[in-house]
Design goal:
single chain, 629 residues, 7-stranded parallel β-sheet, 23 helices, 17% strand, binds 5-Methyluridine triphosphate, protein dimerization activity, COMT-like
């Protein structure tokens, strides 16, 4: 997510961070900026005595770091990036500038100098706009610095050496890291904390706003005043003082142009990020870069049998997306890529990526024809049928099916504990996980509730692969597998039915049919644990028409309503604090008269998974519970 509108202005530019500092990369990535990392080779050895003040030194160093990268990139490709960002953090105490310690003794003398005193941390930042014209590089440097004052406690010798022996001081200015163990040394901070960590994000955003919205409005529309404006136009070029043609027309007609549709254009463009991910997964780029030494683009291209230029662009896109890191030695996987994007990662989602790359988009892309023609895409009228991916996978090649099962297994492993412990299920003796796939959730339920026997009920085509999937924890006889189709066959008897991450893939008719079958199978005193990705209330209204036909996220309130109609009582919803609005989904107990005879099943409705924002981490969004009186 991008909170700062001006950061969005950079999303369509090629931005390079000229820094090897992982902290800077993290701060800017968290802010939603997309960038490549090209560490600067500039030697930080400017003669300090020549500078009038410590921050002047930091700013000049930041500038030289950024310019070195801009020049090197320009020389290499004859094409510089649009923007290069450089930064330099120093600690200043008693007129002395402290950078990174060269050894433990140096760290000791720095930290003992800081002990019991206040010092200043300055980070100089340079934003270099580049333009390659006729083989020549033009640069335009904007620079600033931020100061934060930090006071240390008195540090004992023991504490000092223990801290130094932790190794933390060695790559940090002043010999400490306020964001980690070094935080224990700090008594007071005046100013921007992130500035101490290595990048003054707040000032950076303000500086960008100055550059891109020189009239002072955080609005990318051209300013109305024709006077005194400098600044940067949409392409990063310097704006002239004269009004542009659009503004001239505006002032003549008295109409101002509508707000620039940044969000819309971002959406139009955002498929490129997915495409880069899809392509890299298809080409097995992350498998190639797993574990081994970093590889240069040309080597990756050689192994893939692809063009060096195209591969370089793809790899850079993956760096910008945070899946690869780039250093002088070449490209390597980030931890996310190793875990989720390699074929055999512990929580590999590669199968899911490939599935989304090849399959469901066709369906989602055509609901308008469904609406026009009165066709339900799920009835096969568009030549496809969805349902849970692991069931839909039965129609796919063996490799695709296995990849999908792997992805479903990883997703279930990521969320299973949260699902199993969101409610106290200890009073149930038996459970049936409908469409429980590889049993990832079933084994966690069994581990959390040692008395519980869990039957995983799924299609034979799915269950034949179960042996190849390792659950989280040991296999146990509490869990058994039964082949069957939950739409066709009678449901196994159980005290508790589990319907997890299935419903969103079915249209309303199918959801109603499945839940009705569960309601009929439910014994008095039995229950239903419903787990799904759910839409927030605002998404609910907007998505209603589309979702109703084509399946997709339903809000907890929609599920609760449906369950009450089916005779489930006291539907309650629980949500993690990250999505407090979901608490509103708690349902009042239904009137017993509303229940079909003999059925007063308590219901648990749990929502786990993504929110409407696809970038949010799985399992961090809401959960909601519905329970019986
Ligand atoms: C005071 C403090 C500093 N740092 C780190 O110190 C390095 C400064 O060195 P630099 O020369 O500015 O940067 P670098 O790491 O050499 O990277 P580069 O930009 O390539 O020169 C940066 O890492 C900062 O995060 C912390 O992580 N926490 C703190 O509390």
């Amino acid at each position: 997510m991008v909170l700062c509108p001006v950061i969005r202005k950079l999303l369509h530019k090629r931005v390079v961070l000229a820094s090897a500092s992982p902290r800077r990369q993290e701060i800017l990535r968290q802010a939603g900026l997309r960038f490549e990392v090209v560490p600067s080779r500039f030697k930080e050895m400017l003669p300090k005595a020549l500078f009038p003040s410590p921050p002047a030194y930091a700013v000049e160093t930041a500038k030289q770091k950024a310019l070195e990268v801009a020049r090197r990139m320009h020389q290499k490709d004859l094409r510089a990036p649009d923007v290069v960002i450089g930064a330099d953090t120093i600690v200043a105490v008693g007129g002395l500038i402290l950078e990174k310690p060269v050894d433990k003794q140096d760290a000791y003398s720095m930290l003992s100098r800081l002990s019991g005193k206040e010092h200043s941390v300055f980070t100089g930042v340079a934003i270099v706009h580049c333009c390659s014209r006729d083989g020549r590089l033009d640069t335009d440097v904007s620079e600033f610095y931020e100061e934060t004052r930090v006071r240390f406690s008195e540090l004992s010798e023991d504490l000092l050496w223990e801290y130094i022996d932790s190794g933390e001081p060695m790559d940090k200015a002043g010999g400490y890291g306020i964001q980690a163990l070094g935080g224990m040394l700090v008594e007071q901070v005046h100013g921007d904390f992130l500035n101490v960590v290595g990048f003054p994000l707040n000032r950076f955003c303000k500086k960008l706003a100055e550059l891109y919205y020189p009239s002072g409005r955080e609005d990318p529309r051209p300013a109305q005043s024709h006077q005194g404006r400098g600044g940067r136009d949409e392409d990063g070029g310097e704006r002239t003082q004269a009004a542009g043609p659009e503004e001239a027309v505006s002032s003549r007609t008295g109409h101002s142009p509508p707000p620039f549709p940044t969000g819309l254009l971002e959406l139009v463009d955002s498929f490129k990020a997915s495409k880069a991910l899809f392509t890299a997964c298809k080409l097995k780029v992350f498998d190639l870069l797993k574990d081994g030494a970093p590889l240069k683009a040309v080597d990756v291209a050689g192994k893939l049998g692809a063009s060096a230029c195209g591969t370089g662009r793809l790899l850079d896109a993956c760096v910008a997306l945070g899946f690869l890191q780039k250093t002088d030695r070449g490209y390597s996987n980030t931890e996310t890529a190793n875990l989720h994007l390699t074929s055999d990662g512990a929580y590999s989602l590669r199968g899911l990526v490939l599935h989304h790359s090849d399959h469901p988009w066709d369906l989602s892309a055509r609901p308008e024809s469904a609406g026009r023609d009165g066709v339900d895409p799920h009835d096969g009228a568009l030549g496809e049928r969805t349902g849970p991916p692991c069931q839909a996978s039965c129609a796919h090649s063996e490799e695709t099916r296995l990849g999908l099962l792997r992805a479903m297994h990883s997703l279930a492993k990521l969320t299973a504990r949260h699902v199993a412990t969101a409610f106290d299920l200890s009073r149930f003796g038996s459970a049936c996980d409908l469409g429980g796939c590889t049993g990832a959730l079933a084994y966690v339920l069994a581990r959390e509730y040692p008395r519980l026997r869990v039957t995983v009920f799924d299609l034979p085509e799915v269950l034949q692969h179960v042996a190849g999937f390792q659950p989280d924890g040991p296999r146990t006889e509490q869990v058994s597998f039964l082949p069957g189709d939950f739409f066709e066959d009678s449901l196994p008897e159980a005290d508790l039915y589990v319907v997890s991450r299935i419903l969103r893939d079915w249209p309303d008719g199918k959801v109603h049919e499945l839940l009705s079958r569960v309601a009929r199978a439910c014994k008095p005193g039995g229950g239903l644990l419903l787990v799904d990705v759910a839409a927030g209330p605002e998404a609910e209204a907007e998505a209603e028409g589309l979702r109703r036909r084509a399946g997709g996220e339903r809000s907890a309130a929609v599920y609760a309503h449906l369950l009450r109609r089916l005779g489930f009582a006291d539907v309650r919803a629980a949500a993690p604090s990250a999505t407090p609005t979901l608490h509103r989904a708690c349902a009042r107990p239904a009137s017993p008269r509303a229940h079909p005879a003999g059925l007063f099943p308590p219901v648990s409705l749990i929502r786990v998974g993504q929110t409407a924002s696809p970038r949010e981490e799985l399992g961090t969004a809401g959960s909601c519970k519905c329970g019986a009186p």
